[in-house]
Specification:
This protein is an all-beta fold and about 110 residues long. About 0% of the residues lie in helices and about 50% in strands.
Length: about 110
Amino acid sequence: VQLVESGGGLVQPGGSVRLSCTASGFTFSSYTMSWYRQAPGKERELVAAISSPGGSTNYADSVKGRFTISRDNAKNTVYLQMNSLKPEDTAVYYCVAPIFGSWGQGTQVTVSS
């Protein structure tokens, strides 16, 4: 199992960024995928998850209405669209395949003016 994230960077408060995670080594379309994050000095937390098949989603209360998780099974890719970003969203974001306990390397998102 391999998960490779991309799309992080520095963004101003109120801005947007889209993270991508491309998966390989398993039948992507059959499994739930998740995004977690870890802010400095804090524990990792679940940000969002999306099932497959079906595409049911769930979100942390702190990101509901601002973040959207989606997936393209044809591309073996899961996305996290992050809007109305706040400084407290600053963290390393990880793509996770929970069924395998597999984590990507993480991508830094910094929200700062």
